[in-house]
Amino acid sequence: CIKQHKHKLRREDPVIWLCWLALYQAKAVYPAARGPTIAAQIEKDPFGSVIKKTNPSIEAMVAVHTTREDMYRRLWCPKELFDAIRARKEIWMAPSAEYTAILVEYFRFWRKFTL
Predict the structure, then answer these.
(1) pTM over 0.85
(2) Nearest-angstrom CA–CA distance, 106 and 49
């Protein structure tokens, strides 16, 4: 995805936000795990402090789509997309090959009904 959009980048070393690494989520699965709760981390607004419109280093957000996880089922991912759009950042889609193949098949199927 970065290579595909490289011509749009203002910098050689773009700042990248990897949301699946941003929040420590072990406590959600293992309550006895050490570390902060998700609520305590969200209270600090980690994504908001990175994507703010006043941060010129952030040029875009990369939305990673796979067949193994639906990013829209997680509450935090759509919220980050909303914040990025509100901050007028581009959203780049980075689909896995499997996700792309399924999406193309859906388009082919639904296109029959629109012609």
Answers:
(1) no
(2) 37
